[in-house]
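Let's practice the habit of predicting before peeking. Look at the sequence and jot down your guess about where helices and strands might fall. Then scroll down.
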Amino acid sequence: MKPSEEHGRQHAPTKILLTSISAMVAEKTTFPIDLAKTRLQLHGESRALGSTRPTNAFRVASEIVRREGPLGLYKGLSPAILRHMFYTPIRIVSYEHLRNSLKTDGGSLYLPAKAISGGLSGVVAQLVASPADLVKVRMQADGRSVSQGFQPRYSGCFDALSKITRAEGVGGLWKGVFPNVQRAFFVNMGELACYDHAKRFVISNQISEDNIYAHSLASIMSGLSATALSCPADVIKTRMMNQSEIKEGKIMYRSSYDCLVKTVKVEGLRALWKGFFPTWARLGPWQFVFWVSYEKLRQIAGDCFELSSRRDKDENDESVRNQGREDHTQS
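Done guessing? Here is the structure:
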């Protein structure tokens, strides 16, 4: 086996582990912002049933703390962590594999090719992680119901998976998967491609070296791009995944298109970008924490592999020398 092939095989499982750890750190750091964004996106639904006063992300977060306490900001964290154990490793490793496969003569890909690679990687990852995403949205929405005097639907992550499967079938775990996949395509098209391209631009134009400053600039630009592209699909996805069958099998939205039409009709076109700023406020820090953690862990892992390879080489050289001495003695 060639050294490069062995090195690549060693790094495949390592990348999965490192992306999972980095994603969990980023998710825990920014989860309260994601919760505020989800509650804000669901806020306008009550207009179809009655009146509700306008609100914003800061008011939503303050209301959560007042009614549910500080720990209420982490409602639905466990399925979010579970989701990223699958979603992030698949999309990151898939993107790097597609990008490297499409390169010719060691050159860099054009931005459109990176965008398509990022989008397709996101689609595959979201198809796998959609059940955990569904549980996360349902549990985040539960806190709002509790504050209104209703009993929570689910006591935990696995209770939610069990109840959804019994009430809606196994297919119910993939409810809203179409808008979810749409969102994943746009998010990763903007996030992965823009981060990759922006980071290369910052470093190649000597705006910054490959350090935290370059990572921060790239994450801000990619976060803005991903949010602008994905916010409408995110609103539709959140509302489709939150709804469950009520009496007589009636549901609020029959399809993603029906949800889109009703949302625009009741709340206006701007409702499709509801939660834009908390989404951007989350994507920027999330990407910063994730990419800084991931690249630092990759550096540490690379040093460990280098030390391990050097030790193995020394052991092999010593074995060869010993074998040579034995052969010489026998002769």
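How did you do? The first helix runs from residue 3 to 43.
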